[in-house]
Amino acid sequence: MSNLASNSTNVANQSAFYLNTKNTWLLPDGVVDLLSTEAVKQETLRYQLTRILISHGYEFISPPMIEYTESLLGYASEDVKLQTFKIIDQLTGLLSNLLPNAPQLDAQSDALGQIFFGIALGYLKLRLAEVFDKAVTEANKAALEQFYQRDFMQKTQSTALEKLPTSISQL
Length: 171
Description:
Blueprint: H1 3-24, H2 36-55, H3 69-73, H4 78-83, H5 94-98, H6 112-127, H7 129-135, H8 138-148, H9 151-154, H10 158-161
Helix pairs in contact: 2-6, 6-7, 6-8
């Protein structure tokens, strides 16, 4: 084989490799990098949830950030599948179809489930704003704004976090 033919074959193989490699780095729909302002909002929500969980005796673990439903639940029983919380790709529309049927957020409740739900709605608003705007009921949007006014939420807003504590007792 001539050098020219060999080089052409190598270039074609490299091009195919790069095209295939490029496709392996695509992110799932709705997963994006956040810039500073949005990253601070996300970290604030994570911090709030972590403080609440620790105050109730929970300990840290480090699970995968995302899982494909098929790999996570492929052989699971129907009971486990029904009990698993899923955030579905926004392009499928499944999440959009479920949100209008979500329970009403009680913004003033101290029940752990309501606090988690408020933080989850806040996270959804931050990460999937189009889905949040289209699918969350107006009552839950209004309740989320009330939830943001709660004392523990105000203490962890980005403006409050700019005044970094000098000791743990100031948290």
